[in-house]
Structures are given as C-alpha cells and as structure tokens.
C-alpha cells in the first residue's frame, strides 16, 4: 500500500536527518574514511545532508561483497523465474514508496515534483517491470555447423549467455534514481551483481533504492552503493580488477576516461554520454504542435536531459513565427522550487552547474549571439537559470557545439533539406534528433540521413524501455533498453559437442 502523506513526510525527514554511510552487503555501513561531502537543496542552496566519500579500501570492500555474491551463486544461480519474481517485487516496493522517492529527488535534484512523480519514479517502475520480464527470456542459439567430420561423427553447436560478473555502474545527477535503475535492473535480470556510484550531487535516492532492493528480497551483496566524488571513489571503482563490466552515463570527457580504464583490464563497457540535439521544423510541420514540442523537448528538467533539444532549426517561412512564439512562451513562465506544483521552471542541480550555464551565455554574448531572457528568477540562494532563447546564432558560434545542459535553446533558420541535414550532422555528438513534418515521404527520406541514436518524428524526448537508447559518434558506445540491454550484461559461450 502507498504511504500516507504524513508517513511520506516523516520518512523523507527521517532519511534526510540520517548520517548516511555506504550500502554494502545488504546494510548501511559507517564510512571509515571520515571524509564527508555536503548534499544541497538546489531550490534554497541549503545543505540538507552529507554523504561519505568512500576511499579505495571501502570501494574494495564493496566490490568484494559483489564478487562474493556473484561467485556464491545466490543470485546468478537462481532460477530465472525467481530472479524475475524478485525484480517484480522491487517494482511493487518502489511503487509503495513512490511519493517518498519523488519528494526526496525533488529536494535533492531540484526537478519539478510532477516530473519526479511521473518520470523519475513512475517511468522507473515501468522500466523495472519491463526488464524483470527479460530475466526469463535470455537464451542462446543453436547452429548447424559445417566442420569436416570423420564419417559417422556429428557436431552439435550452441551458444549460452552467461552473466558477465561484477558490474561497476556510475551515474550522473540529472535523473539519479531512473538512470541508476537503467544500470542495476538489466544487470540483475542477467544474473550479475552490482556496485553503484551515484553522483556526489544527488546520492540520496540511490541510497534509499539500495534499502528498498533489500526489502524486496534482493540478496545481500548483490547491489552495493558507494558514495563519493569521481576522482577518489569513482577512480577506485573503474580501476578495480574484479570489475567485469563498467556501465556509465555522464559527460563525454569522463566517458572517455572510463573507456580507457575498462580497456586497460578488458572489462566490457557501455557509455551513455552527452548530446547537442537538433530539432528540425520543416515548412509543412503542424505548427500548433511545434512550440509545445520544443518546450517539452528542450526545457524538460531545465534542459538537463542528455537527449534535450538544444539546436532548433526552423525552415525560413516559419522562423519568425516560431521565434516570437518561443520568446512569448518563456517570458510567461513561472520559476520556482520543484516542490511548488505551479512552478514551470525549477532550479538547476548545483551552484557550479548554474555558473557553468551563465559562462556559456556570457561567451555567446561576447561572440555576438542575441540572448533573450524574460522571466524573473526568485530571490534567494536557489540555483535558478531563466529559460533562454538564442537568436542571431549559427555554427560559427561555440555555443552550437557545446553541451550547455541547461534551459537554453538556440534557434536558427534554414532554407533547404540538404542544408539542414548538414547542419544537424555538424556536431561531434549524435544522441538524439527530432524532425517535425506532416509529410511521411519527407520523414522517410530524412530519417536515415540523420546521424543519431534516436530520431523522433513530430515529438521530442519520449523514451520507452523497449526502444534501444544510446549514441552515435561521441555520444557513447553501446545501447541501453530492450533485450540488448540485458544481453550487454552477458558473455556468449560457444559450446560444440562431438557425438
Ligand atoms: P559527469 O561525467 O561529470 O559525472 C558522471 C558521474 O561520473 C558522476 O557520478 C561522477 O562522480 C563520476 N565521475 C567523474 N569523474 C570520474 C572518474 N574519473 N572516474 C569515475 N567516475 C567519475 O557528468 P554529470 O555532470 O554528472 O552529468 C551530466 C552529463 O551526463 C551530461 O554530459 C549529459 O549529457 C550526460 N548524460 C547522458 C545521458 C545518456 O543517456 N546519454 C543521460 C544523462 C546524462
């Protein structure tokens, strides 16, 4: 049963007041390192808690716990149907605690409570249920082989998919709970065990998730959560010799470092990295849909979405109309804390990130870009950034090539289909794109020419656990979601039997 409002408030307050340790072997363990990092509420700038900075010895303890859990077979040797049943129970336990998780995330990450409820928690629960189903559907293939054989002999060959081992998972701060489950749940469906390091900015829901996994029946040591920054805790995890696979979501720069660390010990790896995603509006687009589509695709979670639209290309006849509509739309937006249900724009995650967005805007202004901002940010120390529209901007400006990861939309006109395809592809990123047209032929012609992992038509940003998600070019390697996500946590073994 879902918690009552009072129970939710009490749980959130009690959780915030706790001295958080590390989650190893099915329990909270006090950190011995003694170093702690503050955790803030972006709406107020106030410190609402602290986390331990795990040192390399503590990371080693967590990895060994996961390794022991893996080799003992308490998880990997379970019947697939039992793994599925426990993962379905995880979804039920998350559902029962959904309001508590949503509030905790809004208080720590800053996002709207509506988005926390619907996406961070709601979509996560759907994802867990979808992935649970794959636990019973992993399998190999049999194949007819042509090995020359002595007369009368035969070979039977088949493949097995076996869980890869201990997975090191490192996640960012924009959708902390959701992205943590994107790593943990397919790994568990495949029979792996996990050590998760959440972002030091937003560690709280990952620590709570670990407790709820235990409550749902995930055996001790199967999922461990270590907290701390990238340099100390993250590095100790990615270089640990008992890790068989690294799965990472975050910036391209850190992704490259993780890829190198993985290759050094031949750990497998999946990288979900940054994006600078184009949204293309053709002359024949349904213009009534376009402005709400841009607002959703570009400003969801204050633009702190790897797949967010940030380069808006408008075919010339609509350019002025779309530009004016966007400026009007952002001018009328209300900005406030994520817990305020009427606030349409909420704080970004941290002071550091707020300043980084402002630096991009200052640089753009210095290069001659026009910056339109119309609404007022609340007074106080919250980490707010006004929704911003850029005009007089083109591919000679640095902001077109940099991932700002904030509520900033650059709007540019174009004339021809070939021109916009060249502009859309003129990026070292290739995560996602959208195309707005009512002409099916135009869509079918253009989709194959856009170099990105996802192309939406007449929408921007919906993800589904069944649709593979990941990047071309410097937006990453490998895919999450779908059957492939579970398979990426397995090794293939070929078996050949002479008989
Ligand atoms: P980040 O790369 O700075 O940090 C991500 C995580 O890596 C954090 O947990 C951090 O502590 C850790 N880390 C940093 N240095 C490390 C190191 N040397 N070794 C091990 N771990 C290390 O990214 P961020 O600022 O948290 O998140 C924003 C970025 O994430 C954006 O670039 C965004 O596009 C990307 N992102 C991508 C996707 C996707 O699915 N493609 C989804 C969300 C966010």
UniProtKB/TrEMBL annotation:
Residues 31-495 form the Aldehyde dehydrogenase domain. Pfam families: Aldedh. Gene3D superfamilies: Aldehyde Dehydrogenase, Chain A, domain 1 (3.40.605.10), Aldehyde Dehydrogenase, Chain A, domain 2 (3.40.309.10). InterPro entries: Ald_DH/histidinol_DH (IPR016161), Ald_DH_C (IPR016163), Ald_DH_CS_CYS (IPR016160), Ald_DH_CS_GLU (IPR029510), Ald_DH_N (IPR016162), Aldehyde_DH_dom (IPR015590). Keywords: Oxidoreductase. The active site is at 272. Belongs to the aldehyde dehydrogenase family. This is Aldehyde dehydrogenase. It comes from Pokkaliibacter plantistimulans.
């Amino acid at each position: 049963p879902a918690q009552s409002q009072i129970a939710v408030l009490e749980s959130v307050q009690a959780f915030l007041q706790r001295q958080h340790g590390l989650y190893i072997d099915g329990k909270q363990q006090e950190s011995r390192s003694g170093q702690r990092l503050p955790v803030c509420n972006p709406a107020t700038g106030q410190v609402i808690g602290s986390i331990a900075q795990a040192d390399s010895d503590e990371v080693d303890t967590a990895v060994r716990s996961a390794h022991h859990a893996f080799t003992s077979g308490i998880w990997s040797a379970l019947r697939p149907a039992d793994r599925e049943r426990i993962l379905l129970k995880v979804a039920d336990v998350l559902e029962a605690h959904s309001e508590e998780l949503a509030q905790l995330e809004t208080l720590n990450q800053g996002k709207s409570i509506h988005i926390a409820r619907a996406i961070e928690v709601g979509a996560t629960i759907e994802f867990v249920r979808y992935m649970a189903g794959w636990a019973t559907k992993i399998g190999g293939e049999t194949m007819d082989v042509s090995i020359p054989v002595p007369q009368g002999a035969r070979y039977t060959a088949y493949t097995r998919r076996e869980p890869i081992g201990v997975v090191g998972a490192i996640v960012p701060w924009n959708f902390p709970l959701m992205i943590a489950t994107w790593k943990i749940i397919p790994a568990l469906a495949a029979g792996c065990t996990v050590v998760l390091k959440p972002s030091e900015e937003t560690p709280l829901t990952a620590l709570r998730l670990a407790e709820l996994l235990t409550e749902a029946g995930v055996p001790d040591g199967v999922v461990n959560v270590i907290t701390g920054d990238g340099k100390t805790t993250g590095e100790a995890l990615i270089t640990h010799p008992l890790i068989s696979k690294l799965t990472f979501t975050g910036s391209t720069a850190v992704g490259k470092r993780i890829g190198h660390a993985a290759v050094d010990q031949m750990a497998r790896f999946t990288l979900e990295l940054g994006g600078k995603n184009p949204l293309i509006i053709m002359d024949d687009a349904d213009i009534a849909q376009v402005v709400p589509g841009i607002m959703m695709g570009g400003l969801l979670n204050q633009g702190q979405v790897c797949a967010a639209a940030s380069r808006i290309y408008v075919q010339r006849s609509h350019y002025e109309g779309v530009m004016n509509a966007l400026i009007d739309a952002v001018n009328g937006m209300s900005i406030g804390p994520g817990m305020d249900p009427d606030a349409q724009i909420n704080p970004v995650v941290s002071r550091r990130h707020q300043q980084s967005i402002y630096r991009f805007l200052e640089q753009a202004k210095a290069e001659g870009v026009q910056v339109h901002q119309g609404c007022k940010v609340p007074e106080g120390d919250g980490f707010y950034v006004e929704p911003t529209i850029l005009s007089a901007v083109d591919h000679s400006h640095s902001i077109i090539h940099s991932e700002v990861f904030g509520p900033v939309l650059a709007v540019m006109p174009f004339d021809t289909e070939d021109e916009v395809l060249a502009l859309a592809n003129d990026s070292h990123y290739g995560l996602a794109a959208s195309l707005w047209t009512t002409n099916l032929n135009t869509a079918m012609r253009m989709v194959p020419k856009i170099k990105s992992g996802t192309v939406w038509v007449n929408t921007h940003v919906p993800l589904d656990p069944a649709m593979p998600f990941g990047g071309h070019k410097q937006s990453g390697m490998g895919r999450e979601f779908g059957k492939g996500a579970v398979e990426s946590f397995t090794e293939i073994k070929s078996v050949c039997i002479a008989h």
